[in-house]
Amino acid sequence: MTLSLFYLVAFLSIFFSLLVIFSKNPVHSILYLIITFFTFTIHYILLNAQFLAIVNFIVYMGAILVLFLFVLMLLNLNKDSEPLKSNLLKIIGVIGGMCLLVTLVGSTKALHLSDPVILQAQNLGLVKNLGKVLFSEFLLPFEVSSILLLSAMVGAVLLAKREPNNA
Amino acid sequence: MENITQAIHGVPLNHYILLSTLIFCIGVVGVLTRRNAIIIFMSVELMLNAVNLLLAAFSVYHNNASGQVFVFFIMALAAAEVAVGLAIIVMIYRNTHSVDINVLNKLKW
After folding, report:
1. Residue B43's CB: how many other CB atoms inside 10 A?
2. Does the beta carbon of A111 lie under 8 angstroms from any beta carbon of chain B?
3. What CATH number was assigned to the domain covering residues A1-83?
4. What's the ipTM?
5. Candidates A82, A94, A160; nearest CB to B87
6. Do B87 and A52 touch (CB under 8 A)?
7. What are the phi and psi torsion angles at B34 (to 5°)?
8. Angle, nearest 10°, between helix axes B13-33 and B37-62?
9. Residues A93-121: what's their mean pLDDT?
10. Inter-chain contact B9–A116, Cβ cutoff 8 Å?
11. Has residue A45 got a pLDDT over 60?
């Protein structure tokens, strides 16, 4: 049971991420992406990264994908509005991706890393430990990321606002 | 919680690397083969998440909390990126009534 849980969840995440890019309807694609991110949350729980699991659940599945779904519904895209790429370009794209996969897998094989991932400190991914690291070592990046979020918010509002002169 | 975390005892590190590589490449194929701008965006999210999972696995492997803090920063970055990107997509749709990426081929030159 111990090992097979990881492989089951890994299989599910690969399966649903394949469905994300190959489903015709964009709404189905987003729903499959939500399931994929849920499997990632399970991966984080298996790694005992509880803070990341909660943040992944809330931020990705709760905020980002709902934003995607909202924009998709707002634009009212039906499935035949998407012109399909020519088959030649699709095949070339898949071949390019496979070449990247083969390269990366080959370099992984050359590393000979087969040590098991073992959790040494039980409280590594808990909120208390991560908060201490975040507010001591990474205090400056934390503050900078708040400026980043503020500027992103201002930028999004400015971009999506209808201009008054040509509205 | 103890028995759940026992479950990863014995999963080799390279299986995590292979899983992340596979999902990253699925994201790359999605970017290369789709023309809907929103689906391309979702593929980019998929790639970001693959890297996040790998960072968390390495963080546990090396017993170092910095990796999980990086994942936290990447999530903040992804939220900002999605907000700006979707605003751009909405603006493109308002001007061209399409989210086809080929409408924007003037950006090539």
Report:
1. 24
2. yes
3. 1.20.120.1200
4. 0.88
5. A160
6. no
7. -95, 155
8. 170
9. 85
10. yes
11. yes
